[in-house]
Specification:
Elements (H helix, E strand, L loop, with lengths): L1 E11 L2 E8 L11 E6 L9 E4 L2 E5 L2 E9 L3 H6 L7 E8 L11 E7 L3 H14 L4 E8 L8 H7 L2 E6 L6 E2 L2 H8 L8 E6 L2 H13 L3 E5 L15 E6 L2 E6 H4 L2 E3 L7
Parallel strand pairs: 8-9, 8-12, 9-10, 10-11, 12-13
Antiparallel strand pairs: 1-2, 1-7, 2-6, 3-4, 3-7, 5-6, 13-16, 14-15
Helix pairs in contact: 2-3
């Protein structure tokens, strides 16, 4: 399946926002799901890159999705050079989605760096489907220049709390420090926490969530080759009633209960 690039521009140093015209089937995509992308007709990158869906809208007879990504490796750097009108090979939407409990009246989003991408899609879904849900967003980044998605989240959430490592915007320090300061104020029976970011942040989030008995769903990001569970390249360890087992982020996730993840 192919998609046409509608725009592809740098949104912050080293970070890009790509809009794609895709088929009608993407109208059923849900927050948490991802796509595998590679430039059509090119040899590089040879394998698709797994990228989360940032936003979704109807577009003509099909749909438009946005992908917010960081050009960190050879593949994403090639993708960042593509222009309007060029085509991408696209596989998706793939993976499971965030689960929204009927009893949840507060949704807390905690994002680190480019982890904001799938949580913006979730914030938009919450604002559309759950008028009574209070959305509180914690957004962390290295510095003010790399803070992304804040304006999008503010449309959906009355409460947005910012942190940067260097203190150039909001709280100075990691976003987990900012969230940890407030964690005790949320009612565990009525609050869902949704998190995405780098591994050290997720590990710390698991400790905070456990200390305050908060239910927490995490979107895991791992390298993968196929996106369909065949290559076994994205295996992670999870705790199950039978003991520690392996799960594939692409086909069993990417969304998991944070309490299940084994951190080494």
């Amino acid at each position: 399946m192919t998609a046409t690039i509608l725009s592809n521009a740098e949104a912050a140093p080293g970070h890009y926002l790509m809009a794609l015209a895709v088929s009608r089937r993407f109208r059923d995509a849900r927050p948490g799901q991802f796509v595998m992308l590679r430039p059509a007709g090119r040899g590089m990158p040879f394998l698709g890159r797994p990228l989360g869906i940032y936003s979704l809208a109807d577009y003509g007879d099909g749909a438009k999705i946005e992908i917010l990504y960081r050009a960190a490796g050879k593949g994403t750097k090639v993708i960042s050079t593509l222009c309007e009108g060029e085509c991408m090979e696209i596989l998706g939407p793939l993976g499971n989605t965030f689960e929204l409990s009927p009893g949840m009246d507060t949704a807390v989003l905690v994002a680190g760096g480019i982890g904001i991408a799938p949580l913006v899609f979730l914030a938009e879904e919450l604002s559309c489907r759950s008028a009574g849900t209070r959305v509180v967003a914690y957004i962390g980044a290295r510095d003010a220049a790399t803070l992304l998605g804040v304006d999008r989240v503010k449309v959906c959430s009355a409460e947005v709390r910012i942190s940067t490592d260097d203190g150039s915007a909001g709280h100075r320090g990691p976003v987990t420090e900012l969230f940890g300061r407030d964690a005790g104020s949320f009612d565990p029976a009525r609050t869902g926490v949704f998190v995405c970011g780098p591994a050290p942040m997720l590990k710390r989030m698991s400790e905070i969530a456990a200390a305050h008995s908060l239910s927490c769903q995490v979107l895991m990001e791992e390298r993968m080759a196929c996106g369909m569970g065949a290559c076994l390249g994205c295996a992670i360890e999870v705790r199950t009633p039978a003991g520690v087992e392996y799960r594939q982020v692409c086909s069993d996730g990417p969304v998991f209960d944070l309490r299940q993840i084994v951190w080494r």
